Structures are given as structure tokens and as C-alpha cells.
Prior knowledge:
about 160 residues, mainly alpha, Arc Repressor Mutant, subunit A, two-stranded antiparallel ribbon
Amino acid sequence: xxxxxxxxxxxxxxxxxxxxxxGARANAASLAVEAGIPVPTAQKLASLLGxxxxxxxxxxxxxxxxxxxxxxxxxxxxxxxxxxxxxxxTACLDAEGSDCCALxxxxxxxxxxxxxxxxxxxxxxxxxxxxxxxxxxxxxxxxFAPANSPASAPAMxxxx
Length: 160
């Protein structure tokens, strides 16, 4: 599984915007330069992220882009879904997934994919922009420990 380039750039741009919280607003072009992404891509992302309610853009002098919510309230899942749509590991988990493959009978693995997809989405929903601004050791990795670890029991129970 790999994020789209656009989703990857969106996470980078949102992290960059989050570092400006409480300070001067930045425009899409300045965020693009600071994040190292193409300006046209940043402009497209500003539109997508704004429509999703993750950023607010103000035109004119003193305007710019700011987070619509605190960094601790915006998750990787929010950002990825704003750009790529709902997180779905396989085609049968899409909204139009009824005809997802060539099998002529119902697939026995689809119910399992639903649980796995929920775990992946939940993991992304637990990582916030605030975590991405902090040092990497601040990530809530205990929530995603291996299945045989006591730390993972609550996460696995919610899927069962």
C-alpha cells in the first residue's frame, strides 16, 4: 500500500502550515516553497483541503492560509481522505465495491478486509499534525503494537 503523491504532499503541506500556527499566515506559494513541493500542486491542495474544512484561506492583505482546527484535532486520516477520498485497501471496500472483481460468487475474504481496513484507518486517525510537528518518538506507537502485545488488545477488540 502506498499513498498517492498528492496525499503525501498534502500531509507535508499541512505539517508546514501547522508550524505557522499562532504566527503570520502563509499563502499556498510560500508553503509550497517551504515544504519543497510545486506551487501549482500546493494551490490545488489548498482548494481540496479548504473544501474538506481542514484549512481556511483569506484573500487580500493580511490574508493567507491557516489551519481550520488545532493541529491536535487534524489527523492523517482527515488529510488523506480530503485528497484521495475514503481509505479503502481493496476495490471491494469502495462505495461502488459490489462489482469489485471477477469472482462470480461472494468473496470469503471481504469481511476480513473490512476489519483490516478499519485498523489501518484507525491507525491513521490516531496520528495528528501535532504528532508530526513533535519529534518522531512522540508518535502514539503503543496503540499499534503487534497483536500479541498487551498494548494492542483494545485496538483488536474494537474490530472483532
